[in-house]
Amino acid sequence: MAAIKTPQPVTGPLPLLESLGELRGALNHCRRCELWRHATQGVPGEGPPHARLMLVGEQPGDAEDVAGHPFVGPAGAMLDRGLDEAGIERSSVFVSNAVKHFKFEQRGKRRLHAKPSIAEIKACNVWLLEELRLVQPQLVIALGASAARGVLGRAVTISATRGRAIPLPQGPHAWITIHPSFLLRIEDEAQRHTEYQRFVRELAQADSWARGAGRP
Ligand code: SF4
Question: Measured from the CA of 30, which atom of ligand 1 is nearest?
Answer without folding.
Answer: 8
